[in-house]
Write a structure and sequence with these properties.
Blueprint (H helix, E strand, L loop, with lengths): L2 E8 L3 H12 L4 E5 L5 H6 L1 H18 L15 H25 L3 E9 L12 E5 L6 E10 L3 E3 L12 E2 L1 H4 L8 E5 L3 H12 L3 E5 L11 H13 L3 E3 L2 E3 L5 E3 L2 E8 L2 E7 L1 E4 L3 E3 L13 E2 L2 E2 L12 E3 L10 H15 L14 E3 L4 E6 L2 H6 L4 E7 L4 H6 L5 E7 L5 E8 L2 H13 L4 H5 L10 H9 L8
Parallel strand pairs: 1-2, 1-5, 2-3, 5-19, 7-15, 8-9, 8-15, 9-10
Antiparallel strand pairs: 3-4, 4-5, 6-16, 11-13, 12-13, 13-14, 17-18, 20-21, 21-24, 22-23, 23-24
Length: 474
């Protein structure tokens, strides 16, 4: 028997379950269809488990340097099985929390693979959902007034670098390692690649990063990329840029994996115990029934308008499946936007230049707004300045003085154009810049907010002063 709903969300990841909660708050009868576990990639294969491993690696690296803090300990080591156990405990706790939220919001959860049906006996328009149950029972049919597609993404691969889970890995397989390799080659120097480079190197693994672009973290401000390269090399990570992995050069033998790449007009061979392919993520648009609708797919992602509507006005799409900024917090806000729009709440579209981006390596990276190159390309008259963590007392106390904050402003209007950070806890500090962007604050206003001493946040006030040539401690 078909079940009717105001909204069915296809996918129970961060964007999907947040959308369902907002719909429930607005009094809509809501259901989620999820093929695996509520929480999706972020909770089970991405944000949370990777950050747990990164934290363990950070603690281990700090303990090894304990004498710098006056702490003397012998035979510092780690038990990777317990590292993994801690990770899983955190994931399990949060998973239980999401399940509780579904019950609290009276949101029906269907476990199975959902596909969109075209016009049928159930509905004269496309959008009914057939749920193929995991236990093999007869499919459920859901008939919603509105649909939100939140099917997420999966790791991309490269031709000739097939993933076998033993020698060649994506982040999915790397998260399930039972022991660490002695060496690893990471193909891809974007956010995920650099996080894994940091994690592995802090655990003492020999790391090589092979990046096709002319710099790692190519979407960040160039100054950030240069500083991260310097600090990774300081940690004995080999960074190779302008490197094109050659097809059909992958070999696996005697416990080693080897690839070849063209680097600066020469061929170079890279060998390690493991090869981690980290070249972005691909939207999950396959086999979900899009062919039964008028929904358009553009460059592999579902095309939507500023309110997340597809070409079928009652079907919305959010998160990684629409491309763009593939970030959990973006998916969440897109989900809220979609729900409020279909519920006639007249929401404002998202300004994606006001979205903070974070890399949880050691050191961390965070940014919001335009890079200096983008500012130049758009023809702004601008001023930019940096302020180093070396002049911040709390950073010295922390033992993490590398890095800086860079502020860019419009010279004519004084508007804040971009803030770029690399250093300790900048993924937390970026929220001040995010709020400043939303409130249209100028660097002068940021600088005149009193930042308590001693805190890491002082670096933001000083950087805001620096862009006006008034920094106190430089």
């Amino acid at each position: 028997m078909a079940q009717e709903y105001d909204l069915v969300v296809l996918g129970g990841g961060t964007g999907g379950y947040v959308a369902a909660i907002r719909a429930s708050q607005l009094g809509l009868k809501t259901a989620i269809v999820e093929a695996e576990k509520l929480g999706g990639t972020c909770l089970h294969k991405g944000c949370i488990p990777s950050k747990s491993l990164l934290r363990s690696a950070e603690v281990y690296a700090t303990l090894k340097d304990g004498e710098e803090y006056g702490i003397v300990a012998q035979d510092i080591g780690y038990d990777f099985s317990k590292v993994q156990e801690r990770k899983q405990n955190i994931v399990n706790q949060l998973h239980q929390g999401v399940q509780y939220l579904m019950k609290q919001g009276k949101i029906d959860v269907y476990e199975g693979f959902g596909r969109i049906l075209g016009p049928s006996i159930f509905s004269p328009t496309a959008g009914s959902i057939s749920v193929e149950k995991n236990n093999g029972e007869e499919n459920d049919i859901l008939v919603p007034k509105n649909v939100i597609i939140a099917t997420g993404s999966k790791p991309r691969t490269l031709p000739g670098l097939e993933i076998d889970g033993e020698y060649t890995l994506t982040s999915d397989e790397a998260l399930e390692l039972t022991s660490l390799p002695s060496s690893v080659v990471i193909v891809g120097g974007g956010v995920i690649g650099i996080e894994w480079a940091s994690l592995f190197s802090d655990f003492g693994v020999k790391v090589t990063v092979v990046e096709y672009a002319d710099r790692i973290l190519p979407l960040e401000d160039e100054a950030i990329s240069k500083e991260m390269t310097r600090l990774l090399k300081k940690k004995k990570v080999k960074v190779v840029t302008k490197a094109k992995v050659l097809p059909d050069t992958l070999t696996k033998e005697e416990g080693k994996v080897t690839i070849k790449a063209e680097t600066k007009n020469k061929e170079e061979t890279f060998e390690a115990d493991k090869l981690l392919v980290s070249v972005g993520r691909r939207p999950n648009v396959d086999n979900i029934g899009l062919q039964n609708t008028d929904i358009k797919v553009d460059h592999g992602a579902i095309a939507v308008n500023e309110y997340m509507q597809t070409a079928e006005s009652h079907i919305y799409a959010i998160g990684d499946v629409v491309g763009g900024l593939q970030l959990a917090h973006v998916a969440s806000h897109e989900g809220i936007l979609a729900v409020e729009h279909l519920a006639n709440q007249n929401p404002d579209p998202i300004n994606y230049e006001h979205i903070a981006k974070c890399t949880y390596s050691r050191p961390e990276v965070a940014s919001i707004g335009l890079t200096e190159a983008q500012v130049k390309d758009r023809g702004y008259e601008y001023e930019a300045a940096t302020f180093s963590f070396k002049a911040i007392g709390k950073a010295l106390v922390f033992g993490e003085k590398d890095g800086f904050v860079k502020v860019i402003k419009d010279k004519t209007t004084e508007d804040l154009l971009g803030v770029h950070m690399i250093g300790p806890h900048v993924t937390d500090l970026i929220s001040e810049a995010s709020l400043a962007m939303v409130l249209d604050a100028t660097p002068w206003e940021i600088a005149h907010a009193v930042h308590p001493h001693p805190t890491l946040s002082e670096v933001i006030g000083e950087a805001a002063l620096a862009v006006d040539g008034k920094a106190i401690h430089s």
